[in-house]
Amino acid sequence: MTTLSDIAREAGVSVSAVSRVLSNAEGTRVSEGTRARIHRVAKDLNYRPNFAARALKFQRTAVLACIVPDLTNAMFSELVRGVESCAREHDYTVLLSRAEVMLELDAALARLLGEGRVDGVIVQTLDATDPAALDALSDAKMPVVFVNTVHPHHAGSVILDDHRGAATATQHLIDLGHQRIGFIGGLAAAGSARRRLEGFADTMASVGLIVDPEWVTAMGYRPADGMAALGSVMDAGVRPTALVIANVNAAMGALLEARRRGWSVPQQLSVAAIHDSWPAENTWPPLTTVKMPFYELGREAVKSVIARISQDDGIDLVVGSPAPELIVRESSAPPLAD
Amino acid sequence: MTTLSDIAREAGVSVSAVSRVLSNAEGTRVSEGTRARIHRVAKDLNYRPNFAARALKFQRTAVLACIVPDLTNAMFSELVRGVESCAREHDYTVLLSRAEVMLELDAALARLLGEGRVDGVIVQTLDATDPAALDALSDAKMPVVFVNTVHPHHAGSVILDDHRGAATATQHLIDLGHQRIGFIGGLAAAGSARRRLEGFADTMASVGLIVDPEWVTAMGYRPADGMAALGSVMDAGVRPTALVIANVNAAMGALLEARRRGWSVPQQLSVAAIHDSWPAENTWPPLTTVKMPFYELGREAVKSVIARISQDDGIDLVVGSPAPELIVRESSAPPLAD
DNA sequence: GGAGTGGGTCCGCTTGCTTAT
DNA sequence: GATAAGCAAGCGGACCCACTC
């Protein structure tokens, strides 16, 4: 490793001169010759400022951590892309981390923030996480921003317009002519799941459609949850002709289960899912989805942590733009005439 | 932030006493009372050793970077899981990073290793990457290990037994009674793609089956590549009755294209893919796959970097155990009688 | 007196050496 | 001569404050 003093020795100048030249400090008075020589030697020796030394000096790492429960999830990777792009613009580096359960989150926060490895953290919790559990790790002053979770005693959340996303999906099915529409939702503990359910229910109510409680489930977002939910809904006395599914992964499971049970989509059952991701294009039939602005969510999350880092106050924010976008594929169609 | 001197002041002892007690240095002679007091104060003040200071002192971060081209890819997340588990066992932390193209990889390596942010790097390159391009960033002594790519002038690669994986998939289709079997492969530049093709070809040859060149493609591993490849193969004069597809994502695209063209799988066309991932269970029909030991690959990669870090010599290694595992789902079946 | 330099301190932590019982 | 503790240097970099023409 090359250090400033290596360069200083080689160039025959003092360490402070090298430091000033290479960090381009303002008001630096160094002759052109010396400056050029320092630059040349630095280049020859392939100098790179030592990260630890800078971090120690500045008490600042210019690193942001982004913790997600599951990297496999294509939605999260949109989020991560947004985080990375915005972080780069603000000269931050992103450290990605995985924390599947609360315990891991707690430990990760302690290590990352407590040991000064990062300046701020963006946390996407599992949908199943009880917000109250976050209290334990919520020094309200910590530069932590939660994504898609509003934290009771911690201002600083960035969430999607779940209500509108669900409404968009629901309206699409209504526009196709469906009247018996069901909702396959996430676990009731999650705020985002509640908001989506409300978006569905409000839209149905606004056009005077009745929702049979048998058509509504709250089992979760995994494919297996979607399979179970579909079974439950389709065993109802009167079957729905269409379903809003609150998550694309659950929708994939539901499609598979529909196949297994011999229900053809979209002829006998239309499906519209919230969230888009590449696997949605590759299911059979390809899924109609409502694409939520995860990329922008990631960007806003970064702005929010940075604000917290510099001013240590946070705000809660709903990312409403771009609006949830309906992507019509082949899993939704008008209902068969009765 | 709490520092050692905060604790020292509070406990009325010297900084060095605190350091020795908290780091549990051997041969430390500190009275029980002092020791207890230091521990209590440290706990009260919620002390955590500063990462930057330690890194600066030790010239060592205990962090390993893992660079992948695409986090969405479910296969990589198996790899990452393996990396994390093994890293944890060796008291390393993992920093995940994304680098889609060579330029980014180069920059990432410079930042991570050059600035001393990490002690070693595990790189999973894109399948499309030309190994020769890696030369540029290959100080052969750098603590870098490549996964699934053998690097010409850089011993230190960990790869899968691609030949055997392809052979397993091929043999499965042969066992079902297929004779006209095609191969949808990855880009020819990638060594792993070549090894899989050889595994396919060798297995076919070993049972005396002929491979029509029209049944073999090398378009890549994305779903769109699989769609194009399926079209090309099924336009052949004599059509195959089964396909080995070198990657599960390409297989998803191929399944979709088969649907679109009205070829029913597995009745008219059997499909077996290399690699397993959760979306493979949720396609229609669910995909028959050969699960490759990505988790173990990740673990071996960690052992390999650690060896490089401490001894700075590397070895090339094939992870052959557990063996590629055939997972029979519904996309493969005996051929229709002619 | 301003242009061009170098010296020295500190960031938090570890550790060999010293000092005081 | 043990035992218990403190001093101080130094990891690499930044920057304030000299100092010299």
Strand order of the largest sheet of chain A: 2-1-3-4-5-11
Please, what is the oligomeric state?
A: homodimer
- The CATH architecture of the largest domain in chain A comes to 3-Layer(aba) Sandwich
SSE order of chain A in H/E notation? HHHHEHEHEEEHEHEHEHEHEHEE
The level of helicity of chain A is 40-55%
What overall form of chain A do the CA principal axes indicate?
Answer: elongated
CATH topology (level 3) name of the largest domain in chain A: Rossmann fold
Which chains share the greatest interface? A-B, 45 and 45 residues
Distance between the termini of chain A: 77 Å
The assigned structural class of chain A equals alpha/beta
Going by CATH, the homologous superfamily of the largest domain in chain A would be Response regulator
CATH class of the largest domain in chain A: Alpha Beta
Number of strands of chain A: 12
Q: List unreliable stretches of 5+ residues of chain A.
A: none
- Estimate what percentage of residues of chain A fall within beta strands: 15-25%
Biggest beta-sheet profile of chain A: 6 strands, parallel
Number of H/I helices of chain A: 12
Q: How many structural domains does the protein architecture of chain A include? A: 3
Radius of gyration of chain A: 26 Å
